Amino acid sequence: MSAKYRSLYRSFPHKIATTSALLLAATMAALLSPGSAALAAEPESISTHSGATTQQERRQVDAYWTPARMKLAGALVPEITPVPEDDNTPDDPLPLPADTPDSGATWRYGGAVGTSVGRLFFTFADGYDGSCTATVVRSANRSTVITAAHCLRSVGAPAADGTWNHNLYFVPGYRNGTKPLGGFTVKSAATSSRWNTDPGGTTSADIAVAGYDTGILVANPSAEGRRIADVTGSQKIAFTKPVQGEFIHAFGYPKARLNDPTAKHAGSRMIHCAGPARPGPEAPLLWGESCDMSSGASGGPHFARFDPRTGTGTVVGVTSTTDELAGGPTPTLYATRLGDSARHLYDWAQTRPL
User: Fold this and answer.
1) Tell me: the pLDDT tens digits for 205-252?
2) Which of 184, 158, 102, 168 is CA-nearest to residue 129?
């Protein structure tokens, strides 16, 4: 593998779920080392970054994300990766029965989750494209979208433009390379200041384990001037402590990174998991459910009190990693649960003018 491709592999947004031995060591360092104490001791603020702020910039980002480019986003070597096939799993007009466990299947039941959750695209500093998952949440400006911090930027000084991802573009209800509700550029993005630097060699995995892997976006209006929540609807959000055994529904757009024709998911459709929540044995601040999702699912919502009939619930966490980092049975998908740090980001975002 060339140096360029190795660099891409290291910088991929779901990297904190892929190299288990190293990251488990980093987890213990985050929990026990002086670096973790430094994170907790430093005053927390918000680090922000501007996205597409002019009409020209918005048009350029919108034109950049063609159907083919969206389908290939996240490929390790996009130049030689075949465009993935569409997922034509038929929709089901009947609602999923309540509290039905699911370890990872195409969501076929419609509802509000099918419009308020979508695929978040971006370009890394090295020019390669990636994707995550994000959710429109209720807010005063009707333009607030929540995801994971590692979907927005790498660890580093926020003033350094290269730490932030570019060409941010949210496609609600993404399906097989299409934009059913259009695409939305991003006016501004934010993470906690505790995501910024690496005291004592602290990594993004360390900071995620410490509970700071939440990112927030303010979406620009549509080309027709409509705010995103008026187009997609929005989901409730809460900043509450997790409860052992609470039944949680998770959604995401996982996409295998390698050129593997047998890969389970290709980012073509939204995938659903559901089950009782439990803390990660190696990362007790992360809570997860039985779920077979991987890269691309990062930032996806974890819902409490989700109603499969309407597709509505309350976002209480965003996907950060898997059991490779947090421990527990395989497969498990873990979320950074939303607490005071996420509330600060949300309060900042929902009051941003458009």
Assistant:
1) 888 889 999 999 999 999 999 999 999 999 999 999 999 999 999 999
2) 168
* Tokens coding 44: 């927390």
For residue 168, give Cα distances in angstroms to 40, 122, 145, 184, 218. Answer: 30, 5, 12, 9, 11
Three-state DSSP class for residue 336: strand
Long-range contacts of 79-88 (CB under 8 A, 24+ apart): 80/259, 81/259, 82/259, 84/255, 84/266, 84/267, 84/268, 85/266, 85/268, 86/176, 86/177, 86/268, 87/176, 87/266, 87/268, 87/269, 88/176
pLDDT digits (tens, 9 = 90+) for 63-108: 999 999 999 998 878 888 888 889 999 999 999 999 999 999 999 9
Query: What pLDDT does 199 receive?
Result: 57
The tokens for 76 are 């390790």
* pLDDT at 10 exceeding the cut of 50: no
Q: Which of 1-5, 13-17, 39-43, 176-180 has the lowest mean pLDDT?
A: 1-5
Q: How many residues does the chain have?
A: 354
Handedness of CA 27, 31, 36, 41 (dihedral sign): positive
In 10 A of CB 327, how many CB atoms? 21
Structure tokens at 75: 């490929």
Question: Mean pLDDT across the chain, nearest whole number?
Answer: 87
- For residue 147, give both structure tokens: 């995801």
Give me 289's structure tokens.
Answer: 């459910």
- The whole model's pTM is what? 0.89
Q: 216-229 burial, b for 16+ CB within 10 Å, e for fewer?
A: bbbbbbbeeeebbb
Which tokens hold the place of 109?
């039941």
Strand partners, 236: 314
Cα 264 to chain center, whole Å?
19
